[in-house]
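thought: user wants a sequence for this fold. calling inverse folding tool.
action: design(structure=
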């Protein structure tokens, strides 16, 4: 198949090229920054470039985006240009060229304020049924792009699946308080319980989606590691998360102690991937239980693919408070 991958210099785009190219697919890849994984350098908001790249394409994997860490360094107009206008240009060209499937990489950030319940309430159980409440221009533009995708399915009959991915970046946390309180791997390990996914599993979700899109037509899916929690755990998670975690994983405390790691005192939301596993036939391999076994064996908590890609950073400049701007 001929596959167009946008954002091919980024974490996920590179991971998709690395995975799909050796399988014999004809890869066309676009990014604003040149790299050995990018065949065309330029903006996805450029209709001439997009029309050129879309010729003969069977599948579009649209990962290119301005991210949450760019909120402090890029204008709202730049977010609209990339995340909305760029997506529109791709949808127009995909429809005109009768592409078989369009997979849009969205984000759990679209849920915004719905992710943190009021004080005293249980942790939030986040499924696809939760209504987005964007709290910044990143969330607003990704939500609008999702709506454009749905419009093209409705009116142009373009098969489109939306994958709302949770955290998979290897960079440090964008919250200085969390960076100061936890070792980086400690924090990322805990996030696999409720809000993180390995890039290898994100890639397999995109591949599953591109094979299922024509049959499904349209759908939105949360792509995150499989949580061990149930709705019955939500009240206690918000107040005494270590008790819940150690009840499910009795060996976790000993393994964490060996690494001088600590537990989060509370967890405020849980991402649920059940719909993606059921409808996309997706089988994620990386979760907290698997991670504990890696720690016992002295292995990296990241997949081999994540290790190979490594950190890229979101900004070329440095800031007074660390890797991210204060805003």
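)
observation: tool returned 327 residues.
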């Amino acid at each position: 198949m001929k596959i167009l991958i946008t954002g091919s210099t980024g974490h996920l785009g590179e991971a998709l090229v690395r995975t799909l190219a050796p399988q014999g697919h004809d890869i066309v890849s676009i990014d604003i920054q040149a790299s050995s994984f990018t065949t065309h350098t330029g903006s996805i908001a450029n209709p001439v470039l997009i029309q050129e790249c879309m010729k003969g394409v069977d599948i579009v994997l649209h990962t290119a985006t301005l991210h949450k860490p760019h909120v402090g360094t890029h204008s709202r107009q730049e977010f609209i240009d990339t995340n909305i206008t760029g997506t529109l240009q791709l949808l127009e060209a995909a429809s005109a060229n009768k592409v078989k499937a369009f997979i849009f990489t969205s984000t759990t950030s679209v849920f915004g304020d719905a992710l943190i319940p009021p004080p005293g309430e249980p942790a939030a159980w986040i499924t696809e049924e939760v209504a987005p409440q964007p709290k910044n221009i990143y969330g607003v533009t990704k939500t609008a792009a999702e709506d454009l995708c749905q419009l093209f399915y409705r009116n142009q009959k373009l098969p489109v699946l939306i994958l709302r991915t949770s955290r998979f970046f290897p960079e440090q946390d964008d919250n200085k308080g969390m960076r100061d309180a936890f070792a980086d791997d400690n924090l990322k390990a805990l996030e696999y319980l409720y809000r993180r996914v390995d890039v290898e599993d994100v890639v397999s979700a995109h591949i599953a989606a591109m094979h299922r899109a024509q049959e499904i037509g349209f759908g939105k899916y949360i792509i995150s590691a499989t949580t061990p929690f149930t709705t019955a755990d939500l009240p206690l998670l918000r107040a005494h998360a270590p008790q819940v975690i150690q009840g499910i994983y009795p060996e976790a405390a000993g393994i964490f102690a060996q690494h001088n790691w600590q537990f989060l005192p509370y967890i405020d939301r849980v991402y649920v991937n059940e719909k993606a596993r059921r409808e996309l036939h997706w089988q994620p391999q990386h979760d907290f239980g698997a991670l504990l076994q890696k720690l016992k064996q002295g292995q990296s908590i990241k997949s081999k693919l994540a290790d190979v890609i490594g950190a890229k950073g979101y900004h070329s400049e440095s800031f007074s408070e660390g890797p991210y701007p204060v805003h």
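thought: summarizing for user.
answer: Here is the designed sequence. The longest strand covers residues 101-107.
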